[in-house]
Here is the input.
Amino acid sequence: MRIRRRASGFSEEASGYRPASGDTFREIQSSEAKTHLPQLLDQVERGATFIITRHGRPIARLVPDPEHQWESVSRAADQLQEIRKGAGKITLEELLALRHQGHKY
Here is the structure.
């Protein structure tokens, strides 16, 4: 799967999506996107953004759902609050194990 990285300078006036400063998009041809859609969706779920192109022109954008991201952030904040409440009861090994919780490798 060939993916080209592109700086966030991509501007489409009709689009309501505005990336944060420093965000990058990854471009992928429509035929490649069709072939690898499940893998692309896994990456989008983890926060990646893709611009799908046809003949070198952008035609669509795959971006993470903001509501899904908010749920993840909210869940992480709740977990941190629980850890804070029992801060004296957590071991170093437990803390180190938690840092990778939820990662998809």
